[in-house]
Specification:
With 194 residues, the chain is an alpha+beta fold. The protein has one domain (46-191): endopeptidase domain like (from Nostoc punctiforme) (endopeptidase fold (from Nostoc punctiforme), Alpha-Beta Complex), CATH 3.90.1720. It contains five helices and eight strands. Helix 2 packs across helix 3. InterPro entries: NLP_P60_dom, Papain-like_cys_pep_sf, Peptidase_C40. Residues 44-193 form the NlpC/P60 domain.
Length: 194
C-alpha cells in the first residue's frame, strides 16, 4: 500500500467515525441536530407569543408616557411591555434608549435594496421622524430613529407586518408596512432574541 492510499483510507475511516459518533455537527451542510432544531422551534414559539401578546392590545389608544394594558401606551412603552410581559425581558421604555443603548439587543443590518431581507419576527424597528430625524441613512449611528419604534411581526400573504403603538395611527395597530410611512422611514433595527 502506498502512503497516498493509506492516507485516503485514514481520512475515510476518520470521517466515518465522526459521522457515527456525532462528534462534529455540520450546519454548513444544512444538517441540523435534534437539539439545534428544538432550540430553533422554541425561539420561533417565543417570538410568535410576542406578536400574539401584542395583538391583545389592538386598538388601545396611544398615550404619551403610558404603559397600561387596555388603557394606553406610547410606542416605546408598548415594545417594552410586550417583551417584559411575554418573555420577561426588561429594557428601557424610552425609544431613544432602545435605539441607541448598546446594552439592548444587537443591530440587524437593513439591506438598502430590500429593507425586510434580514428582519426576523420580534426585531425592534426604528423610524426617522421629527423627534429624531438624524440624516436618514440606513444602519448608522447618525441615521436617527430614536423617535418611533415598533416590532417586526413577519410576513402575511406576501406583506411585511409591523405591530406598534402610535406611528400616526393614535392606537396600537398590526398592519402591512409596504406603501406606508413605516416603509419609507425605517432606518435601523435591533434583534432582542438571538
Amino acid at each position: 500500500m502506498t502512503k497516498k492510499t493509506i492516507f485516503k483510507k485514514g481520512i475515510i475511516t476518520l470521517a466515518g467515525v465522526i459521522a457515527l459518533t456525532g462528534a462534529v455537527q455540520a450546519p454548513a451542510l444544512g444538517v441540523t441536530t435534534p437539539k439545534a432544531a428544538a432550540a430553533i422551534s422554541t425561539q420561533s414559539t417565543q417570538l410568535s407569543k410576542l406578536i400574539t401578546k401584542g395583538k391583545t392590545q389592538l386598538g388601545v389608544k396611544w398615550r404619551s408616557g403610558v404603559q397600561k394594558p387596555g388603557y394606553g401606551f406610547d410606542c416605546s412603552n408598548f415594545t417594552s411591555w410586550v417583551y417584559s410581559s411575554t418573555l420577561g425581558i426588561k429594557f428601557s421604555s424610552s425609544s431613544r434608549s432602545q435605539r441607541y443603548s448598546s446594552s439592548i439587543g444587537k443591530q440587524v443590518i437593513i439591506d438598502s435594496k430590500n429593507k425586510y431581507k434580514n428582519l426576523k419576527v420580534g426585531d425592534l424597528l426604528f423610524f426617522k421622524n421629527s423627534a429624531d430625524r438624524g440624516d436618514g441613512s440606513l444602519n448608522r449611528s447618525t441615521s436617527g430613529g430614536g423617535g418611533h419604534v415598533g416590532i417586526y411581526a413577519g410576513v402575511v400573504n406576501g406583506k411585511h407586518y409591523i405591530l406598534q403603538a402610535g406611528g400616526g395611527r393614535a392606537k396600537v395597530t398590526y398592519e402591512p408596512m409596504e406603501g406606508t410611512w413605516f416603509a419609507s422611514s425605517l432606518v435601523y433595527a435591533k434583534r432582542i432574541v438571538n
